[in-house]
Design a protein that fits this description.
This protein is α+β, with helices and mostly antiparallel strands. It has one domain. Helices cover 41% and strands 19% of the residues. The chain is built from three helices and five strands, in the order ααβαββββ. The protein has a five-stranded antiparallel beta sheet with strand order 1-2-3-4-5. The radius of gyration is 22 Å and the shape is globular.
Length: 150
């Protein structure tokens, strides 16, 4: 009985060691894109937040506010986050991202005839392809590029 118990403990211990090795390998190799999608998801949430600020501003003050790209131009977006530096339009709108110390993307607002378009871009995997997210007064934030682009 003691030998059987020892074999079971050894098997369980070996399984735990194998699991730890697998987890370390997955983390070292990037984890299969979970963090990639989180950058895109953060930008999606921020674009929706900007949309809500625009709608609220229109209801209170009667107009929409255009905002130049911030904290960086869309073509400057990389996997590296930067601190939030608002453009004049975002200052007027009194909006900042949920995590202003580590902004993953770029945001802008274009005022169009009778409405606006919020545009956000992110490159969560650093491949140079940016995910584009848009929202309008009538349409919630949504991914414009393919699901495979982070």
């Amino acid at each position: 009985m003691f030998d059987e118990l020892s074999r079971n403990q050894l098997a369980i211990g070996g399984g735990v060691v194998l699991l730890v090795v697998v987890v370390i390998a997955v983390l070292a190799l990037g984890g299969g894109g979970a963090s990639d999608a989180s950058a895109r998801d953060a930008v999606l949430a921020d674009v929706e937040s900007i949309r809500q600020h625009e709608i609220d501003h229109k209801n209170i003050f009667g107009d929409y506010i255009a905002a130049d790209a911030a904290p960086r131009a869309p073509h400057e977006v990389t996997v590296e986050p930067v601190a939030w530096t608002p453009s004049r339009g975002f200052k007027r709108l009194s909006w900042e991202p949920a995590s202003p110390e580590g902004v993953q993307g770029s945001y802008s607002v274009v005022v169009e005839a009778g409405g606006f378009r919020v545009i956000g871009v992110a490159d969560g995997d650093g491949d140079g392809k940016v995910a584009r997210i848009e929202a309008t007064a009538d349409q919630e934030a949504h991914l414009v590029t393919g699901e495979e682009i982070y």
